[in-house]
C-alpha cells in the first residue's frame, strides 16, 4: 500500500464523517463539522450561484445551503426525508451541505489516505484530499477549504 504525506493531520489517526451523494461515498474531517441536521426546506435567494439552494435559519443565524453534488459536478441532489444537512465551518463561515445521507463517523490512519488517481475527471481534483480504501468501498476525502475558496465564501455571505 502506498502512503502519502498529508499535511494538516495531527497524529497518526483522523476522525472523518462519511456521507453519500448518489451512489458515491465522500468524507470530510469531523473538525470542520458543527452538526448534522435532518432535511428542512431552505429559502431560495434570487441570482445566487447554481450550487446555492438557498438559506436557512440556524438558531438565529442565516446560513447558505449548498447542493454539494452540484458543487462536485454531479447531478443535483433531489432532497427527501432521508437527506441530511451537514453544517460545516469553512473559512470562519458556517454553511449547510446537502447530502443524500450520512453513513458513518470513522477513525482512520493517515496512511490509509491515498492520492487521487490522475484519471479521475468527474470532479475537480483540487477538491479531494485523497481516496480512502475502506472495507465497504472507496471514500473520496474532500477538502472543504479548497472547495470553498475564501472569496467564494465571502460572496455567499453578501
TrEMBL record:
<dbReference type="InterPro" id="IPR002545">
    <property type="entry name" value="CheW-lke_dom"/>
</dbReference>
<feature type="domain" description="CheW-like">
    <location>
        <begin position="13"/>
        <end position="153"/>
    </location>
</feature>
<dbReference type="InterPro" id="IPR039315">
    <property type="entry name" value="CheW"/>
</dbReference>
<protein>
    <submittedName>
        <fullName>Chemotaxis protein CheW</fullName>
    </submittedName>
</protein>
<dbReference type="Pfam" id="PF01584">
    <property type="entry name" value="CheW"/>
</dbReference>
<dbReference type="InterPro" id="IPR036061">
    <property type="entry name" value="CheW-like_dom_sf"/>
</dbReference>
